[in-house]
Specification:
This protein is mainly alpha-helical. The chain is 72% helix and 3% strand. The strands form two sheets. It has a two-stranded antiparallel sheet with strand order 1-2. Strands 3-4 form a two-stranded antiparallel ribbon. The chain has two domains: 383 residues, no CATH class; 33 residues. A hairpin with a 2-residue loop joins strand 1 and strand 2. Helix 5 packs antiparallel against helix 6 and helix 11 crosses helix 12.
Length: 428
């Protein structure tokens, strides 16, 4: 174990908080999967779901370990080419997305041979953030014209978001918000950001009008996220209200200390209790203290991201940490806000805690890149430390040689001088 820990490079705080979140997820997932077990297998056995979740977490940590060994600037080189691959995957997903329970859920594709569904928007978000960080770091020392940035930066961003929007509005909004935050931190001109925000609002309004006018032209996911916004702003009961009510009952039942691990009642009635609404089950079983504990872990992870970004030795490294790290925390906050009805139902999971496969793996992939940035910082600091030690050792060697020369000069005795014939002549 000590040897394994010694092989983990990078920020130990990030490693620790990620491990704590992953370990904590086992009990809530094991408990909240009971309704899936009854529906899917009919016997109520949740052990299979726990084992599956543990396997996903183990694969995720393997991904972190492998990715953090790769120098992070390699991802800068491949981000532009990877964006084209992402567009192809998003287009395929939009057309051939998996049908779940008879409904068109054009957010997943079935991975051949292994039977795992993969949400391509998570990969698209990660690649897009790295692409934006690459552009900002490349243009940091030159004056940016709005016309050139439209073609080089915003056109790829809007193409990516355009593929995601019809099937997943919440993810589109999250990605766009994070891109705006990233360009703001990267010192992109504010007046240009204002124009882009206005253009985005106009485009979204136009898209909604088209979706309303031609409801058969888009998958029914468009109707889903439009109805979610409508139901959130109105008192008309629907399925989302049922989920929110059950989530609020679960949170209220937990009180301060919770009902105890595995003793949730609402997990048997709350849809997506092991994924989208797992925070409600956590509060019901572990109480307000448990919910605040989870929130604290995410805030501590955010704190480590801020430190890692501040210490990064390149602008690209700083922006990569912000672009990949902050969305995880923001997604967690959105998930918690949905559970207490501060936001409409979005379908965003709780990173590293909710059950899932590809979402956990993509989160771990992003964490691997972040840790790779912090590992580079450590390597540079170690190189500077080693250089200082070598310089100190060399200086000590020089000082010792000088001391020996001085000692020789001081110990040049009178007898030695007398033996010197020239010295005897000079004395006469």
């Amino acid at each position: 174990m000590k040897q394994l820990v010694s092989n983990l490079k990078g920020d130990k705080g990030i490693w620790s908080f990620v491990a704590l979140l992953a370990l904590f997820s086992f009990m809530p997932v094991f408990s909240a999967s009971s309704n899936l077990a009854y529906i899917g297998q009919g016997n109520g056995n949740t052990l299979g779901y726990l084992v599956k979740h543990i396997v996903h977490i183990c694969i995720g940590f393997t991904i972190i370990f492998m990715v953090h060994k790769v120098p992070y600037h390699y991802f800068k080189a491949v981000s532009k080419g990877a964006l084209y691959i992402v567009w192809v995957l998003l287009a395929y997903t939009l057309i051939k997305g998996t049908v779940i329970a008879g409904a068109n859920a054009s957010r997943w594709i079935q991975v051949p041979f292994i039977g795992v569904t993969f949400q391509t928007s998570t990969l698209a978000a990660m690649v897009l953030f790295i692409f934006v960080a690459r552009y900002l770091s490349k243009t940091r020392e030159v004056a940016v014209s709005f016309k050139s940035s439209i073609w080089e930066l915003w056109l790829p961003v809007f193409i990516t978001l355009g593929f995601i929007l019809p099937a997943n509005f919440s993810t589109t909004a999250l990605i766009f918000s994070m891109v705006l935050m990233l360009v703001y931190i990267g010192k992109y001109p504010m007046r240009y950001i204002g124009i882009i925000v206005g253009s985005g609002i106009v485009f979204l309004a136009f898209f909604i009008l088209v979706a309303k006018a031609f409801p058969d032209a888009f998958p029914n996911r468009v109707d889903t996220w439009i109805s979610r916004i409508d139901s959130f702003t109105s008192d008309k009961p629907d399925e989302d209200d049922y989920q929110i009510e059950k989530a609020k009952i679960a949170i209220a039942s937990g009180k301060i200390y919770g009902l105890g691990p595995g003793k949730s009642v609402q997990k048997n009635f709350l849809p997506q209790s092991s994924s989208d609404f797992i925070f409600a089950i956590i509060v019901e079983e572990y109480g307000l203290l448990g919910g605040l504990g989870v929130l604290t872990l995410y805030l501590l992870l955010l704190f480590r991201f801020v430190i890692a970004s501040h210490k990064a030795n390149t602008l690209f490294g700083k922006l990569v940490v912000v672009g990949l790290g902050f969305p995880m925390i923001f997604q967690a906050m959105v998930n918690m806000a949905v559970a207490v009805e501060l936001l409409p139902v979005t379908g965003q999971t709780l990173p590293l805690i909710s059950s899932g496969g590809s979402s956990i793996w993509m989160t771990c992939f992003a964490l691997g890149i972040i840790i790779s940035v912090t590992k580079k910082e450590e390597e540079i600091a170690q190189e500077m430390k080693d250089a200082a030690k070598r310089e100190e050792a060399l200086q000590k060697l020089i000082d010792r040689e000088l001391e020996e020369e001085v000692d020789k000069a001081e110990n040049y005795s009178i007898e030695d001088k007398a033996k010197n014939p020239m010295h005897a002549v000079l004395n006469k």
